[in-house]
Design a protein that fits this description.
growth regulation, single chain, BHLH domain-containing protein, transcription regulation, HLH_DNA-bd_sf
């Protein structure tokens, strides 16, 4: 490898990474993109998916906090929830 190419990623490596990234997206996105989609479109979809996952985590955290605030901290249910979060 020449010094000018050091640290650069090959087209084959990019294609492999795109395939791996596409495999991580939900099934519905993979079906929509059955034909080879552009890397930029795939990255945009991946970013949107990650944002939706962050929102889902935030929503679940709020729901869990609300649930925990209505429970007795010493209750068996509270202990089960705490053990699941460890």
């Amino acid at each position: 490898m020449s010094s000018g190419r050091r640290g650069r990623i090959s087209d084959d490596e990019i294609n492999e990474l795109i395939s791996k990234l596409q495999a991580l997206l939900p099934e519905s996105s993979r079906r929509r993109n059955a034909s080879r989609s552009s890397a930029s479109k795939l990255l945009k979809e991946t970013c949107a998916y990650i944002k939706s996952l962050h929102q889902e985590v935030d929503d679940l955290s709020e729901r869990l906090s609300g649930l925990m605030s209505t429970m007795d901290n010493d209750s068996p249910q509270a202990e089960i929830i705490r053990s699941l979060l460890r």
